[in-house]
Amino acid sequence: MTVDTTPLAPIAERAAAPATLTLPTAGGPTWRAATRDDAPVWLALRNHIARADAEPYVENLEEIEEIFEGAWRDMASDSLLGFDADGALVAWAQVECPPGDVTQVRAFCWGGVHPDRRGEGIGRELLAWESGRARQLLAASGKEVPARIGVFAEDDGPASRHRLYERAGFQVRRYYSDLARPLGGTSSGPVPDVPLTGSLRLVPWSADLDEAARLAHNDAFRDHWGSQPQTREQWAQRVCFAPEWSFLVVDAAPDVDALLASPDTDAETAAALRAGEPLVVGYELASRYTEDFAVRGYSFGYTDILGARRAYRGRKAALAALAAGMRAFAADGMQFAVLDVDTANPSGAHGLYASLGYTKTSGSRMFSIEL
């Protein structure tokens, strides 16, 4: 494989940020930034679009209100709502640049147009506004690393949306699969028992171990495509988090000296080890998306994130946590266990899930412009 060693131009140059942003004029909506008071009507439009496009999920009010949290977000500059002459919300946009990005700086664009107002050019102009704002955020980051502007779409979503992204210069970069596994009957067999060896211990999630879980996640996903570290504030934003369905694996007697000597141990983990903090080495954090039960036609527990520290791979820490989560879903009467996976996951997770009885129910993709 040939590695491109061409030096990067400064981020301000690569981003080519516009000095000012042009508001959409197509279709005639009146535009302004989103406020917390808009959350109910914004939710209604987002869910109307989701149902019209047969997306496998809807959102709840708490999820929308959470968007207004986070010091890294400036909704006055990073959002746009379009209202028709009668005051009805017909389109929306939001752009976000995650604060924890280190080796790549990313800006994600989100938006939608009411199905009755499609075909008027609103979506095209709205995407242009989003892309312009994304370039402004990337330039302002000052991070001299590769950059990305990303958007997401369901595989089975409107083909017009895919074409919109492609015509705007976005290319498909990654595919994701939504997987489900029945928890009752005999079709997938029992949830496996996963014994842990040595000083590894499976424990329920607890608030006092949450920071250690964040550090484990940042280590586990360091070699995953498109992943960047999460700050404490990012990590804390889990509106639908289900602690009763979440499990951790800790090393009760880690070899601190060996870990500190390893070049793979990050600075935050090293500081925690020196301070005698607990070491989480595997985790399964789950969420409860009750509103989606009717959309999917069954109840389920959702594994949001799953992983194991790289130094502990092969010791079944993630599998033990996942199995514990699946048993907790079943104990609460959930019919399925559900999760989402990158189809090119470097840890071989897709094959693991297939061996556990998970099968694909839907898919999505990420389009991006690489800078």
UniProtKB/TrEMBL annotation:
EC number in record: 2.3.-.-
One function term, GO molecular function aspect: acyltransferase activity
InterPro entries in UniProt: Acyl_CoA_acyltransferase, GNAT_dom, YpeA/RimI_acetyltransf
Domain N-acetyltransferase: 29-184
Pfam family, one: Acetyltransf_7
The UniProt record lists the keyword rRNA-binding: no
Keyword annotations: Acyltransferase, Transferase
Top EC category: transferase
Protein's name according to its UniProt entry: GNAT family N-acetyltransferase
Organism: Promicromonospora vindobonensis
